[in-house]
Every structure is written in C-alpha cells, then in structure tokens.
Design brief:
about 400 residues; mainly alpha; about 75% helix; about 0% strand; membrane; 7tm6_olfct_rcpt; receptor
C-alpha cells in the first residue's frame, strides 16, 4: 500500500454512478453552490423523464388489460414497471434521507482509520477496499451489459434487417413497451426521439436502483472492517486490557460501531423491503415468460434480466450475513480470553462487552425481514409460488 486510503475511496463507484444522473446521496463539505445547482438540474431532468416513461408503461398495461396488446407483452411491461418503479422509489428514499445519510457518512468518516499508512496496513484497509471494489465493479459491469443489450437490441435488429438484408419494410420497435399518444412507426422522426427518451430513462433507472446498493455495500464493508479490527484487538492485545484507559477507549469505540450498524437499518431498511418484494414479483414474471417460450433474442434479454435480479438479491443477503458474522466474532473472541487473571474493573467491562456482542448486528429490511443468506432462499421460494400461480392461471 503506497498511499493513504480515504473514506471516499470506498464510495467512489457509487458516487460516480450517481453523478451521471445528478443524484447526490450525501452532502460533502465545501460544495460550491453552482455545482450543487447543476447537479440538481440534471437530477430533476432525469427523474421527470424516468417517471414519464413509467407512466407510459402503466398506460400500456391498462390498454393490454382492455385487449389492445398481447398478454405476453403486458407481462414484459409489468417486469419493466417493477424495475423502473423500484429505481424511482429508491431515489425518493435517498432524497428523503439525504440529511441522515450526510450525518451517517460524516460519523463513519470520523472513525475511519486515516491516521497513517501503518495503521491502515495493520487493519487491512486495502483488503476491504479491494473486496468492496470487486463487487462494485462486477455488479456495475453486469448492469452496464444489461443496459446496453436492452437499449440497443431493438434498433440493432432493425438496422440489420434494413441495411444488411435489404428489408425496407422491417418493423421498428422501441426498447421497452410504452404507450405513446401518436403513431411513431414508419420511420417517423418521433421514433428516434422516443428511442432516446427510453434509453435515457433506462440508464436513470439502472443507476438509481443499483448505486443505492453500492452505497450499502460500501458502508457495510467498513462496518465489517471495524468489527474484525475489534476482534483482533481482543485476541492479540488482551494484555493491554490491564490498562483501564485502553479498555475504556476500546469499549467506547465498540459501542459506537454498534450504534452505526443499527442506524444503517433506518437508512436502508424500507428500500430493502420494497427491493425484495419487487424482485420476487419481477423474477416471477421473467420465469413465466421463459417457461412459455420466447425467441432467442428475447430469451437472452430475459436471462440477463433474471441473472441481474438474482445477483442483486444475493449480494444484499451476502453482505448482511457477513455483517452478522463479524459482530458475533467479538463475543467469541472475548469469551476465549484469560479474563480470570484480569483486574476486577476490566472483568466487569468485559462482561458488558460480551453481553452486548452476543446480540448480533442484523441488517433488516424494516423490522419484518432480517437479511442473511437464508433470506435469499425465502425470496426464491416466494417468487416460485407466484410463478406457479401465474402459470396455473395461464394454462387454465
């Protein structure tokens, strides 16, 4: 490690994605008013365009119910609606809790080990940064691949038909099913306008949804780093506990880490709950479309979409499990020490620490759903039940 790692390095990918749609999750000190104004204008343009496209998709579904479109097109449109609505909802949550996120980021920055490279090397900060960046890059690449495929498949198919095959009557299609109050077919100029608007909304939806997840991964990654550093202190520096001042500072830092862990549920709990509920329904729709047959291109789109939703759900559950395991390791480390020979004051402090550490930190999607790897199994079970119900209704 040749240079000092900063707190912002953990959030760099999330902030970079948010910047493309003008979304600022938390305020940074000394932000210039002009820069803030520009970001606000970009954000509202993206947000309004996203919700206009969402409204068009809703109207398309209503028309489908009235028999104006095919049933399978309606199901695909419902998948898009779930995805876009979730992105819009997560954006609203971030904007609503922006002041709380700013306070949380400031508190996390205060306990971040940025004193020296030696301290960061001792705490393995670079390892946790690489771990966080690995999942951020992997997930961002998957999102980009799906976005490019969905946005440009329709026009690429049309260009191949007209330019390579010479089919001048090839039909034009938009990337996503959506109602428009005018006829854009027949190589009309408005087709390209609507195409650009939908591609723009697709980008906004992907960024709005998944940058929130990257933010969560970064915060949880740092909390895990702090908990594992505390565990190492308990194991390797037990002799220091004879110094009451060290013990007091250690206990103070430990309980501060616990409070920060609990606050993360207030910030992300509701969006996680809506995320799981929406993902279960969207995966049900995707599986249903795959089960009744689709063209090769549409099957590729469905598979990409499904893999992305599965990966998103798994990563959230995976980080939730890692956070719980890291917090529980403190109790195990404290219990296994030679506390019998310690001072009475240290023994009493250790009892308090052990008692608190036995209550694991649990990432929660509101108070209803504790998030762990087992949650992913439950999510798949719920999605399959919806799929089986929809499949039965369709066959009958």
């Amino acid at each position: 490690m040749s240079k000092l790692i900063s707190f912002e390095d953990f959030l760099s990918y999330a902030n970079a994605l948010n910047a493309t749609i003008g979304l600022v999750a938390y305020e940074k000190p000394n932000t210039k008013p002009l820069k803030k104004l520009i970001f606000d204008m970009i954000f509202w343009l993206n947000f309004v365009n996203l919700n206009l496209v969402l409204l068009g998709e809703f109207i398309f579904v209503i028309e489908s119910v009235n028999g104006h479109h095919e049933f399978l097109e309606m199901i695909m449109a419902l998948s898009y609606i779930g995805f876009v609505a979730l992105g819009s909802f997560k954006t609203c949550i971030i904007m609503q809790k922006k002041s709380h996120l700013t306070t949380y980021a400031r508190d996390m920055n205060q306990i971040f080990p940025n004193a020296s490279i030696a301290v960061q090397r001792e705490l393995n900060v670079q390892k946790y940064l690489k771990y966080s960046k690995f999942f951020s890059i992997m997930f961002s690449t998957m999102c980009l691949a799906m976005l490019v495929f969905f946005n440009f498949e329709a026009i690429a198919e049309w260009l191949i038909a007209t330019e390579l095959r010479g089919d001048v009557n090839a039909a034009q299609h938009l990337p996503y099913f959506m109602y428009a109050p005018w006829d854009w077919s027949g190589n009309h100029w408005s087709y390209y306008l609507l195409y650009g608007i939908q591609c723009w909304a697709g980008h906004t939806s992907v960024v709005a949804q998944f940058s929130s997840d990257l933010l969560l991964y970064a915060f949880i990654g740092q909390l895990i780093m702090h908990f594992e550093a505390i565990t190492k202190d308990v194991i390797f520096y037990w002799s220091e506990f004879r110094a009451l001042d060290f013990f007091y500072n250690f206990s103070k830092f430990l309980f501060l880490s616990y409070r920060l862990s609990e606050r993360i549920n207030d910030l992300f709990g509701l969006s996680l709950f809506v995320n799981f509920a929406t993902s279960a329904v969207v995966m049900c729709f995707l599986g249903f479309q795959m089960s009744i047959g689709a063209s090769f291109v549409n099957l590729m789109k469905l598979v990409l979409f499904l893999i992305l939703m599965l990966t998103q759900g798994f990563l959230i559950c995976h980080f939730g499990q890692l956070l719980t395991d890291a917090s529980l390791s403190i109790a195990d480390a404290a219990f296994n020490q030679n506390w019998i020979d310690s001072d009475v004051c240290c023994q009493k402090m250790l009892i308090l620490i052990t008692e608190r550490a036995q209550k694991p930190v649990i990432l929660k999607a509101t108070t209803l759903v504790p998030v762990s790897r087992a949650t992913m199994t439950q999510l798949l079970q719920i999605s399959y039940k919806f799929f089986a119900l929809l499949r039965t209704m369709y066959v009958q």
